[in-house]
Amino acid sequence: MRIRQWLRDAWDNVFMPTEEKRGDDDSVKDLLRLKIKPGRSKFVYFMLLLCFTALGVRIGWLQLGFNTEFLQKQGAMRFQRTIEVPAMRGQIYDRNGTLLATSVTAKALWIIPQDVKITTSQLKEIAKTLDVPVSELRKKFNSKRTFVYLKRQVPIETAEKVLDMKIPGLHSTREFLRSYPDGEAAAQIVGLTGLDGNGIEGIELAAEKRLAGKPGSRRVMKDRLGRIVEDAWLKEPMNGENITLTIDSRLQNLAYEALGRQVENLKAKGGSIVIADPKTGDILALANYPSFDPNNRGKISRTGVRNRAIVDTYEPGSTMKPFSVAAGLEEKKVTPNTLFQIGRSMSFGRHSIGDSHYSKELTVSGIIQQSSNIGTSKVALLMTPQVMWSYYDKLGFGHSPQIGFPGAVAGRLRPAKNWRPIEQATMSYGHGVTVSLLQQVRAYTVFARDGDMIELSIYKDRAYREPQRVYSAKTAGQMRDMLAKVVEKGGTGFRARVEGYTAAGKTGTAYKVEGGQYVRKYVAGFAGYAPAHNPQIVVGIMIDEPMIGKHFGSTAAAPLFSEMVSKTLRLMAVNPDRPEDFMVTKNDKKPAKAKAQPAKTHALKESNRARARAPSRTNLKSAKEDHVIKGKTNG
């Protein structure tokens, strides 16, 4: 209580007048007569002195350089900017060093709408130059935002035309425009980038971290009029890494052009082709049709962007038969000469399967050559479902290929415990199982090699992976002999015959499934390799929904196989291994064998064979192709 009283008395002594407060009607003279205690005036003087002293110390602190951080920060906020500088994206090359994707300098045009002063004629001129609707530009110029892009990735020449108009509030920033020299041919492999320069499809997406690099930054100082007075690096950008693919650009363009012609001629929905080197696993070409032009972003569709060979699956049909027969050989259930009774159909309760042509009996070799569903089913049913499934599993069916490409699919291979006899039979000839074309080409490397399967890749600098042993070398050799007969006269794939070279492979035709039911739409295919006994390439072809009547693998896919094998082996300078195809006649004398010459190094330059003529070929009325008699399971 005593302390509280002391504080109250001190307050009164300093701030309260010595006389009582006067009323409102007192004169000014009376107010001036009031006395103020000395303690109050001293307190006021002291406070004023303290304020001026503090102000002086602060001024000295700032002006004498003891601490300039505050002033620097305030100045920087008004006149200094830190600008991010994009790194140059890495380039993509083919196996021979040909550019598949590169970056060229471009500009992004942007505005501060509040600062813009533009006439109607200037607005129309900009719209015409940038190929942007006038209404869209007007909306941007009238925006309430403080930063608006007019257009990004504008070529330098075009951007300069706009900037030369000297419109207040219009600015530009350097960026990069991605260019793809091979256009549509390699678009679905290389992919493309978005407006921000990030990969959104294909290799551009898959290798984003390697290609992107790291952006740098610059410090830009401007005066009060907005003029740049200082421009210095804070951090240099780190350009992206260059990537080399296994693709051969020449072969890629040849494959795309040939595939496009075949799809158009057959009035098909689309198609794919994959060409690989069975010795190294390098993918030499991978083309799809239709494709898209990555240099024209305004006309890109989702269907065109999709890499069918890698991300789409289908029931392969008879191209699966060699794997089933090879399993029977490996398990010693059959030999190439084992004879089977075929007949007209094979029944499974109320369901049945059949062939498109009647055969009383066939050897195992004949089953492959004639593409017999019944014969293949009988071989498959000599094994348990688990054994047959184990071979499919080793071949990679049901597993996504480790190709380093986004969206690579696994396909569908159901567990063996769920197989009924009719399902085991139909799966042996490619119904009830789904694969991608890439998976099928990978699987066919077991025949092009000595029974082991090599992983395929699209990157040249990949790590080595040990091949997967599936069949013995003996079984692989027996299958090579059988598959070579398919391409000769009397086989379902005779249209795949290659002039000057031996080849081997298998045709395939399968119904498509829509809504869980088989419909009268087809997928035609061919998978094989060449030369037959020293394979240098493996080729897989898929044609989606070719016209009825030419929907068989022998008519839709085999001719394209023949064309591409011929061009590819010549491009690779592989010497012909069947020189008898180049026999010539002179003055009606007995034909003599011409000396085999090395192939040209470019597939577009056909060798000038004077007086040479191709051997005559039998024009068969219809191909002996696989067929499914519809039932509950496969109809």
TrEMBL record:
<dbReference type="Pfam" id="PF00905">
    <property type="entry name" value="Transpeptidase"/>
</dbReference>
<dbReference type="GO" id="GO:0005886">
    <property type="term" value="C:plasma membrane"/>
</dbReference>
<dbReference type="InterPro" id="IPR012338">
    <property type="entry name" value="Beta-lactam/transpept-like"/>
</dbReference>
<keyword id="KW-0121">Carboxypeptidase</keyword>
<keyword id="KW-0812">Transmembrane</keyword>
<feature type="region of interest" description="Disordered">
    <location>
        <begin position="582"/>
        <end position="635"/>
    </location>
</feature>
<dbReference type="InterPro" id="IPR005311">
    <property type="entry name" value="PBP_dimer"/>
</dbReference>
<feature type="domain" description="HTH cro/C1-type">
    <location>
        <begin position="117"/>
        <end position="137"/>
    </location>
</feature>
<keyword id="KW-0472">Membrane</keyword>
<dbReference type="InterPro" id="IPR001460">
    <property type="entry name" value="PCN-bd_Tpept"/>
</dbReference>
<keyword id="KW-0378">Hydrolase</keyword>
<dbReference type="GO" id="GO:0004180">
    <property type="term" value="F:carboxypeptidase activity"/>
</dbReference>
<dbReference type="GO" id="GO:0071555">
    <property type="term" value="P:cell wall organization"/>
</dbReference>
<keyword id="KW-1133">Transmembrane helix</keyword>
<protein>
    <submittedName>
        <fullName>Putative penicillin-binding protein 2</fullName>
    </submittedName>
</protein>
<feature type="compositionally biased region" description="Basic and acidic residues">
    <location>
        <begin position="582"/>
        <end position="591"/>
    </location>
</feature>
<dbReference type="Pfam" id="PF03717">
    <property type="entry name" value="PBP_dimer"/>
</dbReference>
<dbReference type="InterPro" id="IPR036138">
    <property type="entry name" value="PBP_dimer_sf"/>
</dbReference>
<dbReference type="InterPro" id="IPR050515">
    <property type="entry name" value="Beta-lactam/transpept"/>
</dbReference>
<keyword id="KW-0645">Protease</keyword>
<dbReference type="GO" id="GO:0008658">
    <property type="term" value="F:penicillin binding"/>
</dbReference>
<dbReference type="InterPro" id="IPR001387">
    <property type="entry name" value="Cro/C1-type_HTH"/>
</dbReference>
<feature type="transmembrane region" description="Helical">
    <location>
        <begin position="43"/>
        <end position="64"/>
    </location>
</feature>
